[in-house]
Design goal:
15 strands, 6-stranded mixed beta sheet, 16 helices, alpha/beta, 6-stranded parallel beta sheet, Rossmann fold, 3 domains
Length: 431
């Protein structure tokens, strides 16, 4: 396996790093045209179009849109029918994710000034949220937990879940997770047509206020296009992991950590930064040996060979500086005193500290959300959280005394902007 080797001391390191990080995000014109047509068709014809696309793409012989809804009794049966170990693991993960997100819950606040003017902020939940869950060959009950539970903690009134079921195959773990999180309605639809149904509403599918959850390129394109009609969480790129290691962690552990993201898809990125060149070679040797044990070894190999790298740096401080440039989705600090590095790290979706903290724990059960900014967007974006399902309304109640003081200030600024009605509106109440 040929994983790229780089050294920060190479004269052309900056150029090589830029090449490594470059991700071709140019939109596929044919894909974009197809998505635009699907959105327009569902918006115009509603259930009829939704049925046609579901029959065509997922090969479901559904005759009515109502038949695409999974009864809650089936969700409950899926949960009850899980092997005990799976059910307990799902419940434990849900408890931990809920407990973590309860710490994020924001409440309304206000304060009153000396003249009696009240200012504040009212926090309220989004009324209805759509959750897109990938289906088909891949099934992600963890995505159900991570997207639905923050919404429930926030107090979202109704959660509409969509999950494609090609050839009618329904994943019991996903359905069990839907029951556990309290999804209100679940529909067996997917792709751009599902996004359109959630964004615009049909006779059967309720229109939502925000759409969250991962999907393929068609889903990502559709979410991007409906943004503004509804809110979205983010348009995510391929999975990423960056490991900073001092060379003292078992190299097998680090190799498997790199695999954990590389196995997502061929475009995933896995990078190691270490000041120890011999250690980088040890990790490569571990990767070579462990790869053959991996069922998804073809995907892992392609990802590591195309977008992976083992980078030797001068020291851990330089590793932190390079990490800030990359702004990774997942950042592992496999060093002796990881908390000492935190002040030096500005950009990362999630930071996994210490030798025993594998990124995989964050994917499933540690507690923090696994929906994270990718492609360098951690420079300005944050993990999905309760705050993404809450709205803020400003509160302003001006007293008579406050109207006199504020009216003069507002009128002065309004006259300066040439907005006479604004000024007079403020001045009318001044006396």
């Amino acid at each position: 396996m040929k994983i790229r080797r780089l050294s920060s001391q190479q004269a052309d390191f900056d150029a090589q790093l830029s090449d490594l990080l470059a991700f071709e995000s140019t939109q596929d014109e044919k894909l974009e045209t197809t998505v635009a047509a699907i959105l327009a068709d569902v918006r115009t014809r509603g259930d009829a179009a939704l049925l046609e696309y579901t029959q065509r793409f997922d090969r479901l012989p559904a005759n009515t849109a109502a038949s695409l809804e999974i009864p809650r009794s089936e969700l409950r049966a899926a949960f009850d029918g899980l092997p005990a170990e799976q059910r307990v693991a799902l419940e434990q993960a849900a408890q931990r994710v809920t407990a973590y997100h309860q710490k994020q819950l924001q409440t309304s606040w206000s304060y009153t000034e000396q003249d009696g003017t009240l200012l504040g902020q009212q926090i309220s939940p989004i009324e209805r949220v759509g959750l897109y869950v990938p289906g088909g060959k891949a099934a992600y009950p963890s995505s159900v937990l991570m997207n639905a539970l923050p919404a429930k903690v926030a107090g979202v009134g109704e959660l509409i879940m969509v999950v494609p079921t090609p050839d009618g195959v329904r994943n019991s773990l996903v359905l069990a997770a839907a029951w556990l999180v309290g999804a209100d309605r679940v529909f067996t639809i997917g792709g751009a047509q599902a996004v359109a149904a959630l964004a615009y509403g049909t006779a059967t599918i309720p229109r939502v206020d925000k759409i969250v959850g991962p999907g393929n390129a068609y889903v990502a394109s559709a979410k991007r296009r409906v943004f503004g009609v509804v809110g979205i969480d983010m348009v995510a790129g391929p999975s990423e992991i960056l490991v900073i290691c001092d060379g003292k962690t078992n190299p097998d552990w680090i190799a498997m950590d790199l695999f954990s993201q590389a196995e997502h898809d061929e475009l995933a990125q896995a990078i190691l930064l270490t000041p120890d060149a011999a250690y980088a070679e040890a990790v490569h040797a571990s990767a070579e040996r462990l790869l053959e044990q991996m069922p998804r070894r073809g995907i892992i190999r392609t990802a590591l060979e195309n977008r992976g790298a083992l980078i030797t740096v001068r020291d851990i401080d330089e590793a932190c500086a390079i990490s800030n440039r990359i702004a990774p989705e997942h950042l592992e600090l496999s060093v002796e005193n990881p908390q000492q590095l935190l002040p030096k790290l500005q950009h990362a979706g999630a930071i996994f500290m210490g030798r025993y903290t594998s990124e995989a724990l964050g994917d499933y059960c540690a507690g923090p959300n696994h929906v994270l900014p990718t492609s360098g967007t951690a420079r300005f974006s944050s993990p999905l959280g309760v705050y993404d399902f809450q709205k803020r309304s400003s509160l302003i109640q001006v007293s008579a005394q406050g109207a006199a003081t504020l009216g003069k200030i507002a009128a002065t600024l309004a006259f300066g902007e040439g907005l006479q009605a604004h000024a007079q509106s403020a001045l009318f109440r001044k006396d």
